[in-house]
Amino acid sequence: MRKDAGLNGDLDRLPQLSWLLFLKAFDDLEQNRMIVDPGYQPALPTGLRWSAWAADPTKRKQGDALITWVNGTLLPGLAGLEGSGKAGDPRATLATVFKETNNRMLSGYLLSDLIDQIDKVHFTSADDIHTMAHLYESMLREMRDAAGDSGEFYTPRPVIRLMVEQVDPRLGETVLDPAVGTGGFLVEAYEHLRAQARSATEIATAKRSISGFEKKPLPYLLCQMNLLLHEVEQPKVTRTNSLTFPLADQRKAGVDVVLTNPPFGGEEESSSLENFPADSRTAETAWLFLQVVMARLEKKKGRCGIVVPNGVLFANEGAPARIKKKLLTEFNLHTVVRLPNGVFAPYTLIPSNLLFFEHGGPTKDVWFYENPLPEGRKNYTKTKPLRFEEFADLQAWWGGRGRVARVENEHAWKVDAAAVAEDGYNLDLRNPHRADDLAHRSPEELVKELIAVEEQILEALGHLQVELRGDG
C-alpha cells in the first residue's frame, strides 16, 4: 500500500484496508451462515461478493481493468443496495458504509497484490479474527497520531476500559454510545458483557445490547470494521448525528448505560439546537451531548460514564449552569475523576475529566478523585502513554458497585452538593489535600496550565459571542 501513489499516509491506507477487509469478512460470515442455514439468502448479489470477484486470482481483473471495475461497478453497486426496511437488514448497513467509500488506490496491480494478502485472512477462524483484531486496533492507535483534527474520535483504551469496568454493564442491559467514533466503547462493553455470558443465546444477547450513532463517514466505516473483527456480525451503529433527535424522542428510546467521549470544542448547526429547550441551548457540543445522555437515562433510570473537558466543570452561568443544575438535582453525580494533563495529547492539552452519574437524584455528595501522573513523570508521550495499571489505586478506592467504604485521602475528597449549588454549580475544584506549591512546579507545567486557562477563557468568550449574536 505504501507503494501506491494514491495513498498518502495512514489516513488513506486505513480506510482503504478497512473496506476491503469488511467485504472479505462479510463474505466469509455469509458463506458460513449458508452452511449452517441452507435457506439463508445472501445479502449481496453474486457478482459483488468477495468470493466471486476477488478470491480467485485467475478470474480477477488486473491492472487498469480492475480499477475501472472497482470504481465503476463494485462500489456503486454496494452503495446502491436497497434494504427491506427491517431493523438489522445488512443491505442497509452495506449501502450506508459504501455510499461515502472511495477506492484510493491508482495501481490495479498493487490493489491485486493487496487483495491476495487479505484473502489469506479467514474470518471463520477464531485465531485469524483475534489476530486481525489486535492488528487493527494497533493501526487505529497509529492513526490517531496522523489524524490531526480527525483524532477527536480516539479515546485511549485504558480510559475506555476504566469507564466500562466502573459503570459495569450487566448482561441484558442496553449500552449506548451516542458519539461512537471508531467503536472503542462498544467493543469494550461487548467484551465486558460477553465475559458474563454462559451460552450462545447469552452471547447473542450481548451482541444485541450495544448500539451507537456516528455522523462522520470515516469513523463510521472504522467502527463497523472494528465491531465485525470482534465478532459482532450486525453492528447496531447508525450513521447519523445524535443531536438531530428531539429530546422527547431521546427519552422514549431509553437505555440502561451510556458510555461515551463526545466531541467538544465544536459548534452545531442551528437546526440541531431547536431540539433542545430554549433555556439550555448552546452551540458547544459537549453541553448538548450531556443533555442527550441525561434524556437517554431517564426512562430506565440508567447510569453513565462520560468524558468532558474542564470547561464543563467550571462554567457556571447561563445555559451551562442550568444544565448542571438539572444534572445535580435529577441525577446522582457520585464521582468525578480528574485525569492528568496529556492523556488526550496531541488532540488537546485541555485537562479532561470523567463524570459518573445515575438517574435518581438529587445528588447529596460529589466524590472527586485526582488520578496522578506516575512517580517521576511530567507528562505522557507516544512512547510512554497512559497504562491501565495506573488506575489500580482508583479502582481499589472505588468501593465496588455499591461504592462503599470510600475514604478521603491525598487523591480523593468529598464535596457537599449544596455547597456546589451555592457556588453556581462550579465543579472545577482543586484537591484540598495537595498544596499548590508553585516553587516546586516546573516552568513547563506552569506554562501548560496557563495555556489551558487561556483556552478556557477563549472558549467562554466564544460562547458569549454566539449568545450575543443570537440576541441581535
TrEMBL record:
Any GO MF annotation of the entry: site-specific DNA-methyltransferase (adenine-specific) activity
Domain DNA methylase adenine-specific: 129-435
GO terms (BP aspect): DNA restriction-modification system; methylation
The enzyme's E.C. designation: 2.1.1.72
Annotated protein name in UniProt: site-specific DNA-methyltransferase (adenine-specific)
Keywords (A to Z) from UniProt: Methyltransferase, Restriction system, S-adenosyl-L-methionine, Transferase
Family under the similarity heading: Belongs to the N(4)/N(6)-methyltransferase family.
Enzyme class, UniProt record, top EC level: transferase
Record field: catalytic activity: a 2'-deoxyadenosine in DNA + S-adenosyl-L-methionine = an N(6)-methyl-2'-deoxyadenosine in DNA + S-adenosyl-L-homocysteine + H(+)
